Amino acid sequence: MESSTDEGARDVIRVDEDPAALSPEAWNALLATQARPTPFMRLEYLRALHTSGSATADTGWAPRFVSLWREGELLGACPAYLKSHSYGEYVFDWAWAEAYQRHGLAYYPKLLVAVPFTPVPGSRLLARDDAARARLALALRELAADTSSLHVLLGDAADQAALAAAGCLARQGVQFHWTQDPDDPAPDFSALLARLQRDKRKKIQQEQRRVREAGIHFTALQGPAITPEDWDFFYRCYQLTYRAHHSRPYLTRDFFARMAAEMPEHWLLFVAWRGGERVAASLIALDPARRAAFGRYWGAVEQIPCLHFDACYYQPLAWCIAQGYARFEGGAQGEHKMARGLLPTPTASSHWLAHPEFNAAVADFLAREGAAMEGYLDELREHSPFK
Questions:
Q1: What domains, with CATH codes, occur in the chain?
Q2: I need a surface site. Which of 73, 236, 245, 306 has the fewest CB within 10 A?
Q3: pTM of the full predicted structure?
Q4: What is the pLDDT of residue 6?
């Protein structure tokens, strides 16, 4: 696809079926200038998903990475996929797919802009400026015309504005994040607990006491300190979590090997020990530059009461406060996280359906869902766990 600017230079849209065709240096330089960059949008992360066999055409994620160029300079880019299912997305459109099927229409393939298996909000349409972002949004619409629909998940405000101007519908959601109070930061985890309502504080203290009484202690390993043996144990735990839900893990062991080799500074592993035996692991992603942490994966070799909450929330929160991190994102869903000090945070996604009548029906649905979500957020805010 080509278009001309007012100055006469040609803008070229390129679509690549392998993220290795793009330059990590150019991509990551563009990412660094966005409003809400995350490590998951680094090209190394996206390439590792592909080369490890985790997100490929064979697993229902056929890459169609879209980039905007002018005279050899990268002006915009985004990770796009032709999807043959809706697994691994965390913004649910199963009902839309079922409605298509009932009417004898094909919902798949659809065009998806997202980080596979990673429900972390952040910039999705990486662009040098608003004009480049607008051209990228229009290019996605044009590319999606050969599919049932376009979906851009968990983008930032600039993404939302560009996609709305391109005719996309907005969908609201909610996650639960902890943010350090910049005016009165909690100096340690005990101080954070002291700010919670009495019943919430007592419950957390009781849960941690049960873990201690089970003989559990934790070690925290960061970056290169995580050995291949540690990664192997974590992956065993990760597999067991999926097995408990009668499903298969999305990510391969090779993906984590690539993360250890290419992005080691972005990982923190909590290992739970009983005596000299490891019994559980919780993997946290880090953005050291922005002092943000992200709860990602967990698993245990046996059931130990309350261990999940300690490994996935209390240990990471204590670590974040001790290390001067300002934000901990708990991942998708989970109203129970509020009782553990994580507060509701709005998220947004963009959608466009090629079928005019279905697009109108979804627009009506999203208007009603959005009003309900606003009410839900108001209700959640009224039940803050803090004093």
A1: 2-174+345-382 (3.40.630.30), 181-325 (3.40.630.30)
A2: 245
A3: 0.95
A4: 46
